[in-house]
Amino acid sequence: MSAHPPILVDIKFNPEGVARVLKTAFADRGSINLADPSDRARDLREAEYALLWKPDADLFARAPNLKVIFSGGAGVDHIIGMAGLPAIPIVRFVDRSLTARMSEWVVMQCLMHLRGQYAHDSHQRRREWAKLIAPEAAEITVGVMGLGILGQDAVAKLKVMGFNVIGWSRTRKEIAGVETFDAAELDSFLGKTDILVGLLPLTPETTGFYDSGLFKKLHSYGALGRPVFINAGRGKSHVEADIVSAVRDGILGGASLDVFEAEPLGPDNPLWALENVFITPHDAAVSEENALFRHVEAQIARFERGEPLQFVVDRAVGY
Cis ω on the peptide bond leading into residue 264 (within 30° of 0)? Predict the structure, then answer.
């Protein structure tokens, strides 16, 4: 019998992988996995720590004695605003692997738009030998919105690839060698941006933030001809109907989307068929279970030693 209460786990992704890793994770505590039918009816009042991703609506009523909530991903909008959310720390998942995966995706999408990959794919399907002359990365300004851990890593890796990179955040961040902008300078930032990368958290202020009005403010006469929108932050931060119309009307030259207003993306959604639009199924930076559980164990150890938790959400701003 463990001397510690079990960790409560309610994660709505990859249930097989979670169950497999839980067999050896939290060895000194054990776990209650609500994806396991044999655990669903268990008394949750003993749980002091919960690891959650889109948890059951009644979870906090069933688990009234929690001390810390851990998000199963970098975002916390799936927890903030839930009924009965207790006034306890909420900790985001921050991990080298998750950060690296996100930057890989962002760099890949920027390069595919730079080098005309959609056109190459179309030529290949038609068996056409059609060379393209692409601009250099140095001719393109990538504007990254959201300069937290994920955004700053993406900025660094885009610079390695040769892009001119600028950054925007609600309050100005100082990044060596990078021009940065704050909320009051949004239009100036957009006017310099050829490829817009969205890595913003979802808050009331960022809901529906990327819309037709914003797209029209992007740099329209750069080396790509028309600007490109890339979003791997949160789907509800963009307006999908405006993306569709902006691509069709030539305001945007293309897009890359990993997040959507409703997931999974419906089969009749017009985004699937748009020219020069790349769709991925919210897997740009999937939380790897071993790394996630190690993160939770490390934070619990800090908490129980009386040390401050890391990556705690500021509820006033929503991330």
Answer: yes
What is the pLDDT, as a whole number, of residue 2?
A: 56
Dist CA 119 CA 113 (whole Å): 10
Instruction: Supply the pLDDT for residue 41.
Output: 92
Between CA 10 and CA 33 the distance in angstroms is 6
Using CA atoms, how far residue 268 sits from 218, 264, 271, in Å, is: 29, 12, 9
Judging by beta carbons within 10 Å of its beta carbon (0-12, 13-18, 19+), is residue 250 exposed, middle or buried?
exposed
> Is 98-279 a CATH 3.40.50.720 domain?
yes
Q: Which DSSP letter does residue 273 get?
A: G
- Mean pLDDT for the chain overall: 95
Q: Please tell me the distance from the alpha carbon of residue 194 to that of residue 215, in angstroms, as a whole number.
A: 11
Active-site annotation holds for 282: yes
Q: Would you call 78 a catalytic residue per the annotation?
A: no
Active-site choice (29, 115, 282, 302): 282
Predicted structure pTM score: 0.90
Instruction: Specify the CATH architecture of the domain 7-95+287-304.
Output: 3-Layer(aba) Sandwich (3.40)
The separation between CA 244 and the C-alpha centre of its own chain, rounded to angstroms, equals: 21
The ranges assigned to domains in the chain are 7-95+287-304, 98-279
Residue of 92, 234, 238, 295 marked active site: 234
